[in-house]
Design a protein that fits this description.
The complex is a heterodimer of chains A (437) and B (491).
Chain A: H1 4-9, E1 17-19, H2 25-34, E2 43-45, H3 50-63, E3 67-70, E4 87-90, E5 97-101, E6 106-110, H4 115-123, E7 127-128, H5 141-147, H6 154-157, H7 160-163, E8 164-170, E9 176-180, H8 192-196, E10 205-212, E11 214-215, E12 219-227, H9 229-240, E13 248-252, H10 254-259, E14 265-273, H11 275-291, E15 297-299, H12 301-316, E16 324-329, H13 335-345, E17 349-355, E18 360-365, H14 372-384, E19 388-391, H15 396-401, H16 412-422
Parallel strand pairs in A: 2-4, 3-4
Antiparallel strand pairs in A: 1-2, 5-6, 6-10, 7-11, 8-9, 8-10, 12-14, 12-15, 13-14, 13-17, 16-18, 16-19, 17-18
Helix pairs in contact in A: 9-11, 9-13
Chain B: E1 2-3, H1 13-23, E2 28-29, H2 32-35, E3 46-47, E4 52-54, H3 59-72, E5 76-79, E6 96-99, E7 106-110, E8 115-118, H4 124-131, E9 136-137, H5 150-156, H6 163-166, E10 173-180, E11 185-189, H7 200-204, E12 212-220, E13 222-223, E14 227-235, H8 238-250, E15 257-262, H9 263-272, E16 284-292, H10 294-310, E17 316-319, H11 322-333, H12 335-342, E18 345-348, E19 351-352, H13 358-372, E20 376-381, E21 386-393, H14 400-417, H15 436-439, H16 442-455, H17 470-475
Parallel strand pairs in B: 1-3, 4-6, 5-6
Antiparallel strand pairs in B: 2-4, 7-8, 8-12, 9-13, 10-11, 10-12, 14-16, 14-17, 15-16, 15-20, 18-21, 19-21, 20-21
Helix pairs in contact in B: 1-3, 8-10, 9-12, 13-14
Classes of the chains: A alpha+beta (437), B alpha+beta (491).
Chain lengths: 437, 491
């Protein structure tokens, strides 16, 4: 019995609509990882204009149809399990570049555009969007915003929230609304860009987004240091307290360093900018290393790209499955110690990294995955350092045993109130977010 | 100037009794003459006396006051130092004004984590003073930074000259303790960014007191750059200066700050401040601040100088030590005050344009200036396209204020027409709410109201600000920023 296919056929063409059984198997598998067991959506729809997206959402609103929105689907296996989803909405066809205003350092694109495609456009004008999130080849702008997923470059450029300056979105009732604008400085109206960043599709579906962009750096170098906890912590603190201006400062857990052929806790530091300025910066960091008895190895050009690629691959690898991944936060000055402690306590940790400046990090476990109660201990450990632990990817039964989010604060009622206002019938990605939102 | 008070319709006795119990006698101000200073903020052309002013010291006191307001259905308005330029702290009819001046403690300095936790009444540059010994600073630097409060900066999402490279207030606030308009104390964010859940910190910053009052603010501090250099270049046309700005950005250089002044502003500054560093015959000057490592600054200095000369710059002066740098900045920082000296009144506008539209917009502003018959001086943050046109007029002449407001409104509409914004850093407040529909559709504004209805369900927190209503936009306060803080520079 199909309820939604006939309704959606009135607003999209046949080839944009696939009944569940006709959805490509890989996408079907990805979608299943985002869904609570027991039901599958009736269909997946791919609108190709913002107006069509609005029409789809309006139809579903009238029918009280619950949807799950996604871009390329690269992070569908992350986050909470959506409940009772009837329609999947892919924004992948909303992939047009609207305007790259190079002289104004802004770019506007449809939300389903892939970051990699956007970067290729920007590079023609020697600019880039300083985000290096997970699954950088597949990830779409909308998905990156919805999950607030940034990478090592956040040290210099901030997170997604700091770069997003305008959004247009389709509300739960199918109305199109916007906030912000296309200029880098703008305080008119509430900052819904911040609200939508990391909202996991629960407040509306992004159709068009504007980012602030930056000039591509002229040159780049990455230094790798590894050693004992005390030495690495000392170098990190010296670096952060110095006037050096790295673009990335990553503390890396020992098992991850081992894969790179190095022993001990790692510190991976990237400097980018004028070629002439990099030597002085790297020399200073080497001195910090020497003072702590550590030698730094320098990576440039292809070797540098390979190093970062290998780190990303360890984080993103599909096999061996099933993996468990987490996003964590701890006080920055406790980051090195926390990483060392987690490594000692959890032998199945394969990837661990914390951005030293912000205290945000990522953990991955393979093979003997920690149990729910063991993860709860780990969450408490992070909370004791002022932070949190959220599950990203995890076996479905684990996500059902343990609240994936672990929001430790006291503003949940406000968050529920906001969801209630934006989406009173809980039609948009229901159950995906904090507190069952 | 308009005074907007009507006789109070309310019996304040039971409410005042509660306030006395919460705050003690010295924390409650109700005598008319003592209330005078609270009638307006930095937007002085409209004034309204609050019914009562309260001066809490703690989060709990703020919560108790707001709970009392909620019980008695009394509107309240928050106020920091009162330097805001958009009337965000303009009292509303028969309201309680909650002034955070006594909440002036720096609660925690955590250098290891590069965080500082403050109460809202802490003055902006106290934060930098508290950490500069260790080589750190707090980046957002509105020009009123020696008197404006962090609470006010949070409310308005204040900027400053260094926004181009370092961002505005919201990029430096990680967490807030907030009393909502319903009187509940909640913690938003923390010392660590991106805690699970919606980014309510990000929404609260810039909400102009309409969601509640922030009582603790966790700020990110930065390490001071190794080297700072200011370049002053003068040009024989505004176009050449504008082209230079474009070329600098095009060359991949992001200066710490990049400011432009036109000939009218230059002469006003020289008349009044007499720095003798801005050539009177220049059509425009650029002030370009470069920061970073010494090698980086040296290299970029050479590149910027070459770009300036390529566009016909006549003289380029560079300054590296603090005193010389301050001398070069002095005229720019005194530009608003200088207008106050050469004209009885001036109206400062705050609009943003895509910087590449600068030449067109300046021509249009000149045309509007001639059409309306008022002189307009242009001082602006050229790097990010944030214009501050200053319209000179005489408020003593009846009807002038209204005409100048119309000209100011036309400039805002022009900013929106070219793809910009009606405010870059001063906020909407009471001043520009009626221009919100120029930028946002009814659906956009309705959606923003979703947030307000959650934090502020009864509409008691700073009613009538930011959002247009038929009533307010028919009659109420519009603006002129006259000089209520004559000794303080403003942007």
């Amino acid at each position: 019995m199909s309820q939604f296919i006939p309704v959606l056929q009135s607003v999209v063409n046949g080839e944009q609509l696939a009944a569940w059984e006709q959805v490509e198997p890989p996408l079907r598998a990805q979608l299943k990882e985002a869904l609570a067991p027991g039901s599958v959506p009736e269909c997946v729809v791919q609108p190709n204009t913002p107006a069509q997206l609005a029409a789809v959402v309006k139809q579903l609103y009238q029918e009280k149809g619950r949807s799950l929105s996604f871009g390329s689907g690269s992070k569908l296996h992350w986050g909470g399990l959506a409940q009772g989803v009837q329609v999947g909405i892919s924004t992948a066809q909303l992939n047009q570049l609207i305007d790259h205003a190079a002289g104004d350092l802004t770019v506007t694109a449809q939300a389903g555009m892939r970051l990699a495609d956007l970067q290729a456009h920007l590079a023609q004008q020697n600019q880039f969007l300083p985000l290096n999130p997970s699954y950088g080849d597949a990830a779409t702008l909308g998905g990156i915003i919805a999950t607030a997923d940034s990478g090592s470059l956040r040290h210099r450029y901030g997170g997604v929230r700091d770069l997003l300056i305008g959004i247009t979105f389709v509300r739960a009732d199918g109305e199109i609304a916007k906030a912000g604008g296309r200029v880098v400085k703008n305080v008119a109206g509430y900052d819904l860009m911040k609200l939508f960043t990391g909202s996991w599709g629960t407040l509306g579906i992004l159709s068009e987004v504007t980012f602030r962009v930056y000039p591509l750096p002229e040159a780049s170098k990455t230094l790798v240091l590894s050693g004992g906890l005390e030495a690495i912590a000392r170098v990190t603190q010296a670096l952060l307290a110095s006037a050096l201006t790295p673009t990335a400062v990553e503390l890396v857990a020992a098992p991850t360093m081992q894969q790179l052929g190095q022993d001990g806790l790692g510190l991976v530091v990237q400097f980018q900018g004028l070629a002439v300025a990099l030597d002085a910066q790297t020399a200073q960091l080497r001195q910090f290393g020497q003072a702590a008895g550590i030698t730094a190895t320098v990576h440039t050009d292809a070797a540098e790209a390979t190093l970062w690629k290998r780190l990303a691959e360890q984080w993103e690898a599909i096999a061996p499955s099933p993996a468990l991944t987490c996003k964590i936060g701890v006080w920055p000055n406790q980051a090195a110690a926390t990483l060392a402690k987690i490594t000692a306590l959890y032998p199945s940790l394969t990837y661990g990294a914390i951005h030293a400046g912000s205290g945000l990090g990522q953990l991955r476990f393979d093979a003997d995955l920690p149990s729910a109660s063991s993860l709860l201990d780990l969450r408490r450990l992070c909370e004791a350092q002022g932070g949190f632990l959220s599950l990203l990817a995890a076996p479905t039964d684990l996500k059902q045993q343990l609240d994936p989010w672990g929001y430790p604060g006291n503003a949940l009622e406000l968050m529920r109130g906001i969801k209630q206002q934006f989406d009173p019938d809980a039609l948009l990605s229901p159950g995906r977010f904090v507190g069952g939102i | 100037m308009l005074t907007l008070n009507k006789p109070s319709q309310r019996d304040w006795t039971p409410i005042l009794r509660e306030f006395d119990a919460i705050l003690g006698d010295s924390g409650v101000i109700r005598r008319k003459e003592e209330l005078l200073v609270y009638e307006c903020d930095g937007l002085t052309s409209y004034k309204r006396r609050p019914a009562v002013v309260v001066l809490p010291r703690t989060t709990e006191q703020v919560a108790a006051v707001i709970q009392a307001c909620d019980r008695h259905q009394v509107p309240f308005v928050g106020r920091g130092a009162g330097t805001g330029l958009s009337g965000g702290a303009l009292p509303v009819e028969d309201c309680v004004l909650i002034v955070t001046a006594r909440m002036n403690q720096i609660l925690e300095v955590d250098l290891d984590n590069q965080r500082v936790v403050v109460q809202p009444g802490v003055i902006n540059n106290w934060v930098t003073q508290a950490v500069s010994g260790a080589g750190f600073y707090y980046a957002p630097d509105p020009s009123s930074q020696i008197i404006c409060s962090i609470g006010g900066n949070v409310a308005e999402n204040s900027g400053g000259v260094h926004c181009l490279k370092y961002g505005v207030t919201v990029n430096h606030v990680l967490g807030l303790k907030v009393v909502t308009a319903a009187g509940e104390i909640v913690d938003l964010g923390s010392k660590i960014p991106e805690m699970p859940g919606y980014d309510l910190t990000g929404v609260f910053v810039g909400s102009e007191g309409t969601l509640g009052i922030a009582t603790e603010i966790t700020l990110r501090i930065l390490k001071a750059p190794e080297t700072i250099r200011v370049l002053l270049a003068d040009f024989s046309s505004v176009e050449a200066a504008g082209q230079t700005v474009s070329d600098i950005i095009g060359a991949g250089i992001v200066p710490g700050g990049m400011e432009m002044m036109d000939n009218f502003s230059i002469n006003a500054v020289e008349d009044v401040v007499g720095t003798n560093c801005y050539p009177r015959d220049a059509e425009a000057i650029l002030l370009i601040e470069l920061d970073g490592s010494e090698v980086e600054v040296d290299t970029n200095t050479r590149r910027v100088e070459a770009l300036c000369r390529q566009n016909g710059a006549r003289n380029i002066t560079a300054a590296s030590d603090l005193e010389e740098r301050l001398t070069l900045w002095k005229g720019r920082k005194a530009a608003f005050a200088a207008m106050g000296r050469i004209s009885p009144d001036y109206y400062v506008q705050d609009g943003v344009i895509p910087r590449t539209k600068l030449q067109y917009v300046l021509q249009e502003i000149e045309a509007l200036s001639q059409k309306h018959g008022y002189r307009v001086a242009n001082v602006f943050h050229a790097g990010d396209g944030n214009l501050h046109p200053l319209i000179l007029y005489n408020n003593a002449i009846p009807g002038e204020l209204e005409k100048v407001e119309e000209l100011g409104g036309d400039i805002l509409k022009l900013c929106v027409k070219v793809g910009g914004s009606i405010s870059g850093e001063h906020g909407i407040g009471a001043d520009k709410r009626c221009y919100m529909p120029e930028m946002f559709s009814a659906a956009d504004l309705d959606t923003m109201q979703y947030i307000r209805s959650v934090f502020n369900p009864r509409g008691l927190a700073n009613p009538g600000k930011i959002f247009p209503t038929p009533k307010t936009c028919g009659e109420a306060a519009k603006s002129v920023a006259a000089d209520s803080f004559p000794t303080v520079e403003r942007f």
